Structure prediction request, 278 residues.
Amino acid sequence: MSISGNRLFQLFKYSVYALLAFNVYAFWSEEVLAAAMLYPAGISLSEIIGSFPATIDTAAWVVLLLMFELETYVLEDHHYNRTVTLSLHAVRIFCYTFIVYALYGYVVKLLLHYDVVPIVGLSDLCSLTLDGWSYAIDLDDFATITAANCESFSTASSFLRFESMQAAIDESGLTDIRVLAWVDVINAAVWLLVVVVLEIDVRLQEHDRLKGTALRISNAAKFVLYGMLLLAAIYWGIKGDFIDFWDAFLWLVAFAFIELNVFEWLHETNESEALSQS
Prediction:
């Protein structure tokens, strides 16, 4: 029994969606360890978003992605009724609430990495091995300082500590972490702009108005926005942050599928108009 090219394509598409869903767990596994360092006294309800922004963000985006898939590919015109339409809108509003909330969480995490003070009199990390200190390797990666690893973290002669925890970092490492935190904030904000443009595309297409100037403006805006997202993915790849790079790559592929859905929808609409006028 042969499998058609379209079925293989759909299998590939939904495999990408499944991998993105798995990334929710991957981010949670990473952030739960970092949260234990950032909030050693425990996490309050108001601090959850600052501790798990990537987990919350990714979960909301996965649901929103499925909503776009439903609207642009799965559902036909005859499937829509008041209940279906209201349900789709309610789920989308729910997702957008958490996506905006996650953006706020990225900002909170960014600000936490500006809340640092010098460790007075410290010139050698190895002197911290007996006091339960950790070293900030990455944005969400902290390692306990031991006699076996202390010399491998940094050769600097001065260090800083994060105000709320016993975690040290040198100036160079702090700069790298802050840049990563800024990239997280910018990436989240750009993705919000992408879905704003895509939402406009879908609404215009529903009313057969995604054409001419509107279509050109949409394409130009998405060229710039997707370009920024690609640069963020490349940066994560260069910095060796595999989870963020892999996640960014999968999201670009996933939204390429949504764009193809919109293109096919537009093509079908144009064909129907041409047939009706002939």
User: Anything to note?
Assistant: The longest helix spans residues 171-206.
